[in-house]
Design a protein that fits this description.
Length: 127
């Protein structure tokens, strides 16, 4: 399974800082807190309405239903993301397609994004 290929150590998840490459000027981008989670299959980002306007979004034909420790919710759009993880590389750009969850404010969410096992495998990440 993909989880066995990704999970090599004791932990199943880790938190890293990422620089999102958005349509705004790079100096206005704030770092994101990203959870690399082998317990999740797919990727999701938690953004405000204002941040969502900076993304190139694609509507989903069918809503995705997410079940998390904070409850269940649906997503209706995805966005292609480019992220840089400066702790590991200043130049390598990691790309993924993530579901979009609109949140009222950033304080309501501990993470800006969750990257799941499918993308972790594609990125050849070992946890």
């Amino acid at each position: 399974s993909l989880r066995r290929k990704v999970v090599k150590g004791e932990g199943l998840k880790t938190v890293v800082i990422a620089a999102p490459l958005l349509k705004t000027q790079p100096s206005s981008n704030k770092p994101w807190v990203v959870l690399l989670d082998s317990g999740a299959d797919d990727d999701i980002i938690f953004v405000t309405e204002e941040e969502a306007a900076l993304l190139d979004t694609t509507p989903l034909a069918y809503s995705n239903i997410w079940s998390t420790s904070n409850g269940d919710f649906k997503t209706h759009e995805v966005a292609d993301l480019d992220l840089v993880f400066p702790e590991y590389s200043q130049s390598k750009i990691m790309s993924c397609t993530a579901d979009i969850k609109i949140v009222p404010d950033k304080e309501s969410c501990p993470y800006d994004a969750i990257v799941g096992v499918n993308t972790l495998h594609d990125w050849r990440v070992n946890l």
